[in-house]
Design a protein that fits this description.
Order of helices and strands: HHHHHHHEEHEHEHHEHHEHHHHHHH
Bound molecules: arginine
Strand order of the largest sheet: 1-2
Oligomer: single chain
Number of helices: 20
Structural class: mainly alpha
Number of strands: 6
Helix content: 55-70%
Distance between the termini: 62 Å
Shape: elongated
Largest sheet: 2 strands, antiparallel
Length: about 475
């Protein structure tokens, strides 16, 4: 006697699944997150089937009502998820059949879980990208406002983490903005590419029913149907792409985190992070640790790991659908959740950073940061840059010997290096003179920071 092992596919089976294997095989514990996407996809599918005369309008109405009720049950936390029904798709379909009988069993006409799951993921990622962009833009907004406030705050600019040339803090912050702006554009681009409908690809080869794929795509706000049924049900490159954008965002946030951690140290004291974003030490009472920035930096590891997992799951899979792809969801969701949390933490913290302007400015003078300005000054007096470089090198050596800053050398001392040097040299040797002189598009001068702030704001005003 045949024992029906699974409501949806048990027909040819004679024994039920081993308990451990049932758990091994199930995905409902994590793919129930796509329940509303699954319902949206089914509503579109049923509507299209009705319009094509494949389902009766009575069936379509029942299916719509049943799915709406299920949506409500899920929202109210009343829906009974069952591992025996394997995944989100079969859980919802089984409940629909409980509620509306035969019509529920007809919903799966001309469809397979293969095109169904591919559709659900794309719908889900579309929403996730919109949410992530909202969070990202909030952070970008906070950065712009801080940059505006600190547009003329002078700090040391670094290369090799050695004092290089003075920059404005606003300019530094807007470098962060540019990184995140490209990430925002990458998210938009990724959304564009994934916004195609797999529905109608069915298991792999399409279906014998007179379906209208353009219509179901339109009903779900997809730009168009995927062009090839085999590709539609199998590739997860769009999800890998999102994980890769997320890895890029996490990488950028970790660079910001690293700088905040360094700047917040007692040795630097460039910034004070708000207390509510720091923790204390259980043994050293004096400590205020930048844990939140460290966590943002540390979580980058798992976001990179998620990308590697996704790439490896897809690697070597023959066409078309393989169950390997069930493994895509956990890393994908983890990548989204982790990056969203990182963005949220920084969006909350960064607008409240206190810049210690005096310390920043004082240290901007250290390390002969205006040496290049002196070389440029000499070039303007007609000396070739390489010769000017040599003269300034010697001038720095003299300042080291005298244990003073460049602008603390006497005019006499400076003239001894090159007699073209005159009293106006002291204007370029100051940190203010140095940043003000870099007054061109993309430069660090406060005037340019103001312009860049305006451009950044108008980017954020666009949708
Ligand atoms: N839970 C499955 C997944 O996530 C749904 C598709 C299953 N398809 C199949 N033919 N077994 O990929």
């Amino acid at each position: 006697m045949s024992k029906k092992t699974n409501q949806q596919w048990g027909g040819r089976f004679s024994e039920s699944m081993d308990g451990f294997i049932l758990d091994f095989n199930e995905s409902v514990s994590f793919d129930q997150r796509m329940a509303f996407d699954d319902i949206a996809g089914s509503i579109a599918h049923a509507t299209m089937l009705g319009e094509q005369g494949i389902l009766s309008s009575e069936d379509v109405t029942k299916i719509h009502q049943g799915l709406q009720q299920i949506q409500q049950e899920i929202q109210d936390g009343k829906f009974q998820w069952s591992a025996e029904l394997e995944d989100v798709h079969m859980n919802i379909e089984a409940r629909l059949t409980d509620l509306i009988g035969l019509a529920g069993k007809r919903l799966h006409t001309g469809r397979s879980r293969n095109d169904q799951v591919a559709t659900d993921i794309r719908l889900h990622l579309r929403g996730a990208i919109d949410d992530m962009r909202g969070q990202l833009r909030q952070l970008m907004h906070g950065i712009v406002e801080l940059a505006d406030k600190e547009y003329d705050t002078i700090m040391p600019g670094f290369t090799h983490l050695q004092s290089a040339q003075p920059v404005t803090f606003g300019h530094h912050l807007l470098a962060w903005f540019e990184m995140l702006k490209r990430d925002d554009e990458r998210l938009v681009d990724c959304r564009k590419r994934l916004n195609q409908s797999p529905l109608g690809a069915a298991a792999l080869a399409g279906t014998t029913y007179p379906i209208n794929r353009l219509r179901s795509a339109e009903l779900m706000d997809f730009d168009k149907p995927c062009a090839n049924s085999l590709d539609a049900v199998s590739d997860r490159d769009f999800a890998i792409e999102l994980c890769s954008v997320n890895a890029m965002i996490a990488m950028h946030l970790s660079r910001m985190a690293e700088e905040l951690i360094i700047w917040n140290s007692v040795q630097f004291k460039f910034v004070d992070l708000p207390d509510r974003f720091c923790t204390g030490s259980s043994i050293m009472p004096q400590k205020k640790n930048p844990d939140i920035a460290e966590l943002v930096r540390g979580k980058t590891g798992r976001v990179y790991g998620d990308l590697m997992t996704m790439l490896t799951i897809m690697k070597s899979q023959p066409l078309a659908y393989n169950k390997d792809n069930q493994e895509d969801k956990e890393p994908l969701f983890d990548s989204i959740d982790t990056v969203t949390a990182n963005l949220r933490a920084f969006a909350g913290m960064i607008p409240h950073i206190q810049a210690n302007r005096d310390i920043m400015k004082k240290t901007a003078k250290d390390g002969f940061a205006t040496a290049t300005d002196l070389a440029d000054y000499l070039v303007k007096k007609g000396i070739a840059f390489r010769d000017a470089h040599e003269i300034v090198g010697k001038t720095v050596a003299l300042a080291i010997e005298k244990n003073c800053a460049l602008d603390e050398l006497s005019l006499e001392d400076l003239k001894a290096q090159n007699d073209g040097i005159e009293n106006d040299v002291f204007e370029v040797l100051t940190v203010e003179g140095s940043v003000n002189a870099r007054n061109h598009l993309g430069g660090t001068a406060p005037e340019q920071v103001k312009l860049a702030v305006a451009n950044a704001r108008s980017y954020l005003d666009e949708v």
